[in-house]
Hints:
Elements: H1 3-12, E1 22-26, E2 31-34, E3 36-40, E4 43-47, E5 58-62, E6 66-70
Antiparallel strand pairs: 1-2, 1-6, 3-4, 4-5
Amino acid sequence: MESADSWRSLFENWPESLPRQGLVVTTFQExxxxxxxxxxxxxxxxxxDKPDSIGARKVILAYDAISAVKxxxxxxxxxxxxxxxxHPL
Length: 89
């Protein structure tokens, strides 16, 4: 599975029980904080709570431009199993 497909699956299956907030790190080394998002095909729409340095509050990003997602909330690892994560065997 391509990493873009994995990122897409993560955002499409994000459970309602987890806040839709965190930080996306892009392949061009930008960190984008988000407080909500929407999905559309191969694109992700991120919403910021504060504008960036040029005044933008929304970012449209291709899934293949995502390098990492950082979660800014404190949750037990067990709650992240709904995203497809599991303990190694």
